[in-house]
Specification:
With about 80 residues, the chain is α+β, with helices and mostly antiparallel strands. The chain is about 30% helix and about 30% strand. The radius of gyration is 11 Å and the shape is globular.
């Protein structure tokens, strides 16, 4: 699973085989915690990511939502900046 961004100790990853992985989403990893976020709503749909990390991931996701959807639809890897 390619890493598409890193910020504040959070690693954002995305699978690129949509047919096998349901709705458009990305994964966030922070230490031993994980979260799966729906791209369209930015809600955590699975996982145990702490609330502070969830907030940072949602803020980042809002900035790059269009790019994330484009990557999901085109299966093209692109490194994105972290949260500033």
């Amino acid at each position: 699973m390619p890493v598409i961004a890193r910020f504040y100790g959070i690693i954002i990853k995305m699978y690129f085989s949509q047919s096998e992985h349901g709705i458009p989403h990305f994964h966030a990893v922070y230490g031993e915690f994980n979260g799966v976020f729906a791209i369209e709503t930015l809600e955590m749909i699975e996982g145990d990511l702490p609330s502070r990390s969830q907030k940072l991931v949602k803020e980042w996701g809002a900035q790059y939502k269009n790019e994330l959807l484009r990557m999901w639809q085109n299966n093209e890897f692109k490194q994105l900046p972290g949260l500033e």
